UniProtKB/TrEMBL annotation:
Alphabetized Pfam families for the sequence: Thioesterase
Species lineage: Bacteria, Bacillati, Cyanobacteriota, Cyanophyceae, Nostocales
BP terms from Gene Ontology: lipid biosynthetic process
Domain of life from the UniProt record: Bacteria
Identification of the protein by name: Thioesterase domain-containing protein
Entry similarity comment: Belongs to the thioesterase family.
Species of origin: Halotia branconii CENA392
Amino acid sequence: MIDTSKWIVRYQSRPKVRLRLFCLPYAGGSASIYRQWSELLPSDIEVCPIQLPGRENRSKEPLFNHVTPLVQSLLPVLRPYLDLPYAFFGHSMGALISFELARQIHNQRYPEPQHLFVSSRRSPHISASNTPIHQLPEAAFWEELLLYGGVPDALLQNPQIAKFFLPLLRADFAIHETYKYTPGVRFNFPITAFGGLQDKKVESEEIMAWREMTNSDFDLHLFPGNHFFIRQEYHQILSIIAQDLNRKIAA
């Protein structure tokens, strides 16, 4: 039997759940980045952050460095939770994982999501223009990470902490940088994309290109901030998500 408790973290019980929101983290992130979301979204929306191997309570488990085996491992975990309407939210790496999950769900004819929310990630069909960094020497790797604008000072000032996180960050960036897009059918559910106006790694036009992934509605919301604008703008982001999902619940 699959142990779903390792993968799906539920910070608050929701006795009258009408829709689930599965949240996928950015590179180096864990389920706890979404801890507050369950307090700020309506009570009939259950926030289900995904805890990937290699972080927090799963710190000793082997890391994934390619998206395909990760999705193949995660999909059977999610399957029992698709009995209710649901949506995906993913930031950066999490957006890519969410996209590939939705694709496999479509291919296997499981109930499809009501909505896909993607953040700080170019559309999957656009090749990255940046030079891969996951195999760079340590000093050069950290220099590249600084360009994203979200590396905590504690990580940079404490060599032991930095050494601990280095394999995780390399593996997560490998998920990004080894990804190969293959053409497929467009989704029939809406996509909402979010981006940071000062993001040095992802252009607004690259985020806008997510509209090519769906036959349904597409919305783009740009906020002041860098690649990690989500840390400052999450109240507005959650307001948009709540409005979109409440329409689904009402329907």
